[in-house]
Amino acid sequence: MNTAVNQLLRELEENVKDQFKLQKAKLNTGTQNLNKRAIISDEIIGKNIRLARKTKGISQAELGEALGISFQQIQKYERGANRISASKLHMMSRLLKIPLESFFMSEEMS
Prior knowledge:
The chain is mainly α and 110 residues long. The protein is built from 5 helices and no strands. The mean pLDDT is 83.
């Protein structure tokens, strides 16, 4: 029985590896355009974070402390170097008292 269980576990592990490779291959299709759009989106969100923060007269250190992250992380969000999570963005919109969707507005949309 132990041998049969081990064999099933090996087969399952191989199946999972194959599924992972398949998913990775699907994701890699056309990623160059997706990555470029993601970078642009991160930059737009970052610029809007900076604008909202400065409008409210809050420093990066103060905003970072309120969110439980470093001011360096706020800098990275504002530059678009790091992608901000949905939960952090939601917390930020509540702290800055602005609508969540305002972070996604680009100059082209206004």
